[in-house]
User: Fold this.
Amino acid sequence: MRVVSGIQPTGNLHLGNYLGAIRNWVRMQDEMEAANRAQATGSDSAQANQCLFFLADLHAISLPHVPADLRAATREMAAALVACGIDPERSILFNQAQVHAHAELQWLLNGTARMGWLNRMTQWKDKAGKNREGQSVALFTYPVLQAADVLLYQATHVPVGEDQKQHLELARDIAQKFNNDFCAEDAPVFTLPEPIIPPEAARIMSLRDGSAKMSKSDPSEMSRINLSDDADTIMQKVKKAKTDPEVLPGEAAGLEGRPEALNLVSIYAAMSGESVDAVLARFAGEGFGKFKPALGEVLVESLRPISERFNALRADRESLDAILARGAARAREIGIPTLDAAYNALGLVRGRG
Ligand code: TYM
Assistant:
């Protein structure tokens, strides 16, 4: 198995990222290690089950950005991932920009991706809105870079939230078409990756609007819980979260048509490791005056160790840079054979400069 996933280093790591993706990254990292021990693959690390996690800094330039902020945010996001449990000894942690093969493979895949496929991407439509002509080309071709990110490493599993599912389907389509067009049937260049989406937290919604996903780009800080928020801020954000005037029902079916209530109960369930029904069994008939402080406490207690580790790590620029440089070197080693194979399949010879 090869697990690969990425996160954009823009803004803070929030609860949606954590529950939708990062928690699964940590789980898979631990499973991989157990599987490696069982298989006793020894020192041949290129053959072992592996996890590669990266900061998608190349993706971040698809929207307007401040260069100095991007550099700082890349380090901060690395610190946040380590604080969440990504262990740079067991997983390969790096930033895309240090591995030239991502951008290079994207160009090769641009020959295979179709305009029509990219035009159908809902994230492109959402982000471009009515002003498509004014967007960067990078925003449009963003999903081809994302395909390169995972195909470069022959990823078998890609843990993501629901909003990335369509991008991964596109990565599979690109891989399939490239293999069909340029490879012998018994010698495909690319592996088709499987998205791994957690059923219990696939889409965490904004605290201010149950129909919008929790997002770094929401202008309201009150819409999201950041993993770096202190206890008072978390309690305040939960207290102010939008709800409805009804009491909580006894089971999940009773939350239908109540998106804000469903979101808060789902967050409670995902953080405490219970099912939505188990949480509701405890709070049935109670209003949000009782539920919100309980939710706030669960959040504060579970996030406390993460925010403490984050605060200890974030100032240590040298260690973070060293982690990313070492991760990039290991990633390059794994990715280059696939990059070479893609060049060869296209009738090109890669330069060694
Ligand atoms: P990004 O940076 O927006 O988000 C990182 C991860 O967090 C998940 N996520 C959520 N999950 C549940 N509820 C939410 N409200 C929520 N918000 C974000 C995302 O699904 C994602 O898994 N294009 C990607 C980064 C990327 C990537 C890749 C991912 C670049 N290359 C290759 C996987 C494989 C992005 O912008 O994620």
